[in-house]
């Protein structure tokens, strides 16, 4: 079913390619859904990559890698990466130049990550099971090799020498040496043998627990059986499965008659997207309640998995000398300590509470009026249904009318218009070489500058299909890096989405929240494609975690601005430009319950920080932690017996890092208001974004980047860390500042 606006239960569901640097050769990146678990380490080799656009296109393999013409090619791909890395390790042992040590370390990372990234993208998107299996095997093999690299003392000692000898003259090289050492030490290489063995074992355990947590979500989505069938509205029938039961009977005669009579009902499998639709569209409160309770009570097995994950991460943090996993995870970021994060979240919670409470009362009063129950309570399963009704009635919005202005091909045109207006660059569709693509839906584009030439390459795989990664993601395939004075390795990325409507991209039409998602992911892609760092270690989205979501959040604003929308949003049959009044209604509906949505994200971030924070002497179960936080920071009830956190995948990949979405929301709000809002499509706006922010990736200090871009008023220094200035977000949402 379609709806206006983003799904209310789990709005921040994008996984984006950018999690914290964890180890020098395996920098985990968020790519995609929950928009769900994340991928992409970082790099790629210069060998075997074709970008020719001449008519004589040679056969190649997946993503332009000659090795990947067949599934078995992944084996040779891994072999060559290991062989080449071995040569580079030997080379480092005989090199005295600090600059050359760092350059070679980056090449090792690039070589190995080419396999990692290709395998990740392949195993999540390729329709051929044989390719997927070989990619899985390659991923396991290369990860074993990564462990060897990350515990290699000769490499670690070479990095320490390069960092300490004072001969690195370029700031980016100094920064690279520093972060390579820090990343090594996050893996425990500096510990005594006994402690390092324990950390290695705990990391293996954590990987297994994360896999188990994700698998349990798929294996046990939960279900409820609803009778009679009339309880489920017709526009949800495509999401549910018909079931039948014998009719109940009292008399012997009617029992005989009813032997052949079956009552029809529906089974609702309560996986997240179906649950979201049922909560939005089912008018029967009992159906919503049953679905909500069941969907938030599975998988039960993950309660135990989560307890073990918390304990294992806590033990690692303590071995590393930190009082909690949250402290360990936050330390390299702008926030720098859990105390700073918590003070920011508590400030945000206090700030949003009056407006969120006001919205809560408005929804409750609307429900009472609709249901005729003067003293009726507002339940958690009521929120999506009644807020949807209120938005539709207040602004007379119909999601299918909105979607009629967003045919997918027009939305892609919109991205082209955006980059041309902002950066003076063009996206050209270029032919895929035989063997390069993994599906007929895939498009390839080059980002071209009239003076600078090609800046990078983008694959688009936007339609849903069976067996495909179920979310929206930015996958890095290759990071940009300087190879020599005259040669630059261009970045290559893929945007993977699951837009429904039609497998035929010429007729697919997007809901507006899908347009917002496309622009969000495109923000990540531009961060990668416009990056011009010397080292791929810092390319594009390879930044500290609490900066990573800023470009993507900023580009969401472009999906809501009429000056932008009118350049591409046209009716699929009449060609009419989207009416300004319709966009104003969409904007009004978006604002209606914005405080409630913001409060939910603060609540999620508080759960994340608390679960991975300091552990009490007698362990508390996660259910009571979540219930207490919900009571303290929202007006909504906790429903006994539910444990929503057992499906919260961000605890795996963004453990103690979910707050970074809120940092990004604040940074993006300030940047939009101070840099973009006045003239969002001007070359001056684009030049500021590119030269002061996007092109630097992670090569410059994040606070310097933000201050250079916006000036005063984007961040504040607090207790040795950095928090965003919340003024712009407050103004945007009409929140009272304390």
UniProtKB/TrEMBL annotation:
Cofactor note: Binds 1 zinc ion.
Domain of life: Eukaryota
Similarity remark: Belongs to the peptidase M3 family.
An annotated GO BP: peptide metabolic process
InterPro entries in the record: M3A_MIP (IPR033851), MetalloPept_cat_dom_sf (IPR024079), Neurolysin/TOP_dom2 (IPR024077), Pept_M3A_M3B (IPR045090), Pept_M3A_M3B_dom (IPR001567)
A cellular-component GO term for this protein: mitochondrion
GO molecular-function term, one example from the UniProt record: metal ion binding
Organism whose genome encodes this protein: Davidia involucrata
Subcellular location: Mitochondrion
Cofactor: Zn(2+)
A Pfam family the protein falls into: Peptidase_M3
PANTHER family: MITOCHONDRIAL INTERMEDIATE PEPTIDASE, PROTEASE M3 THIMET OLIGOPEPTIDASE-RELATED
UniProt keyword list: Hydrolase, Metal-binding, Metalloprotease, Mitochondrion, Protease, Transit peptide, Zinc
Domain Peptidase M3A/M3B catalytic: 281-712
SUPFAM superfamilies: Metalloproteases ('zincins'), catalytic domain (SSF55486)
Protein name: Peptidase M3A/M3B catalytic domain-containing protein
Lineage: Eukaryota, Viridiplantae, Streptophyta, Embryophyta, Tracheophyta
Main localisation: mitochondrion
């Amino acid at each position: 079913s379609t709806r206006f606006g983003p799904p209310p239960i789990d709005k921040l569901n994008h996984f984006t390619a950018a999690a914290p640097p964890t180890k020098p050769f395996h920098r985990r990146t968020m790519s995609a859904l929950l928009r769900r678990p994340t991928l992409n380490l970082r790099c790629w080799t210069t060998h075997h990559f074709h970008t020719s656009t001449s008519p004589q296109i040679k056969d190649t393999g997946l993503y332009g890698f000659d090795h990947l013409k067949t599934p078995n090619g992944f084996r040779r791909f891994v072999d060559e990466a290991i062989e080449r890395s071995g040569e580079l390790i030997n080379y480092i042992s005989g090199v005295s130049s600090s600059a050359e040590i760092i350059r070679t370390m980056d090449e090792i990372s690039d070589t190995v990550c080419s396999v990692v990234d290709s395998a990740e993208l392949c195993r999540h998107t390729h329709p051929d099971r044989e390719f997927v299996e070989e990619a899985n095997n390659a991923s396991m093999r290369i990860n074993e090799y990564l462990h060897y690299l990350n515990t290699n003392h000769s490499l670690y000692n070479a990095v320490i020498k390069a960092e300490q000898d004072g001969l690195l003259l370029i700031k980016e090289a100094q920064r690279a040496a520093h972060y390579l050492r820090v990343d090594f030490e996050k893996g425990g290489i500096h510990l005594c043998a006994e402690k390092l063995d324990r950390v290695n074992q705990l990391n293996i355990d954590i990987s297994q627990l994360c896999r188990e947590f994700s698998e349990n979500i798929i294996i046990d989505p939960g279900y409820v059986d609803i009778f009679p069938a009339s309880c489920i509205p017709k526009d949800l029938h495509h999401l549910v499965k018909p079931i039948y039961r014998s009719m109940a009977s009292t008399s012997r005669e009617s029992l005989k008659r009813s032997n052949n009579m079956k009552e029809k009902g529906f089974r609702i499998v309560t996986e997240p997207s179906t649950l979201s639709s049922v909560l939005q569209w089912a008018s029967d409160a009992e159906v919503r309640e049953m679905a909500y309770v069941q969907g938030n009570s599975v998988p039960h097995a993950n309660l135990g998995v989560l307890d073990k994950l918390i304990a294992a991460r806590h033990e690692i943090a303590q071995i590393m000398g930190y009082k909690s996993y949250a402290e360990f995870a936050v330390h390299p970021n702008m926030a720098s300590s859990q105390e700073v994060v918590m003070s920011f979240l508590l400030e945000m919670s206090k700030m949003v509470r009056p407006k969120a409470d006001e919205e809560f009362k408005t929804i409750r009063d609307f429900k009472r009026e609709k249901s005729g129950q003067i003293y009726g309570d507002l339940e958690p399963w009521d929120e999506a249904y009644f807020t949807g009704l209120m938005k539709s009635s207040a602004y007379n919005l119909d999601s299918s009318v909105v979607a009629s202005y967003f045919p997918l091909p027009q939305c892609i045109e919109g991205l082209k218009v955006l980059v041309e207006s902002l950066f003076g660059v063009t996206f050209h569709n270029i032919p895929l070489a035989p063997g390069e693509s993994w599906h007929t839906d895939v498009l390839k584009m080059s980002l071209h500058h009239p003076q600078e030439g090609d800046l990078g390459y983008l694959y688009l795989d936007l339609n849903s299909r069976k067996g495909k990664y179920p979310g929206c993601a930015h996958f890095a395939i290759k990071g940009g890096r300087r190879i020599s004075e005259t040669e630059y390795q261009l970045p290559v990325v893929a945007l993977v989405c699951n837009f429904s409507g039609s497998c035929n991209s010429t007729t697919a039409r997007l809901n507006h929240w899908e347009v917002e998602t496309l622009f969000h992911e495109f923000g990540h892609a531009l961060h990668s494609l416009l990056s011009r760092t010397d080292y791929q270690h810092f390319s594009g989205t390879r930044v500290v975690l609490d900066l990573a979501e800023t470009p993507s959040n900023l580009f969401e604003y472009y999906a809501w601005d009429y000056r932008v929308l009118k350049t591409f949003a046209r009716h699929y049959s009449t060609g009419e430009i989207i009416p300004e009044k319709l966009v104003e209604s969409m904007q009004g509906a978006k604002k209606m319950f914005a405080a409630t949505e913001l409060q939910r994200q603060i609540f999620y971030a508080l759960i994340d920080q608390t679960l991975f924070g300091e552990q009490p002497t007698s362990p508390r179960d996660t259910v009571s932690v979540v219930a207490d936080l919900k009571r303290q920071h929202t007006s909504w009830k906790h429903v006994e017996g539910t444990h929503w956190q057992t499906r919260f995948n961000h605890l795996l990949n963004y453990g103690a890092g979910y707050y970074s979405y809120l940092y990004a929301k604040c940074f993006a709000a300030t940047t939009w208001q101070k840099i973009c809002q006045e003239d969002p499509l001007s070359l001056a706006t684009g030049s500021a974004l590119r030269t002061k922010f996007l092109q630097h990736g992670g090569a410059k200090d994040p606070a310097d980047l933000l201050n250079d871009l916006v000036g005063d008023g984007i961040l504040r220094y607090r207790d040795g860390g950095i928090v965003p200035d919340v003024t712009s977000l407050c103004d945007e949402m009409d929140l009272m500042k304390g």
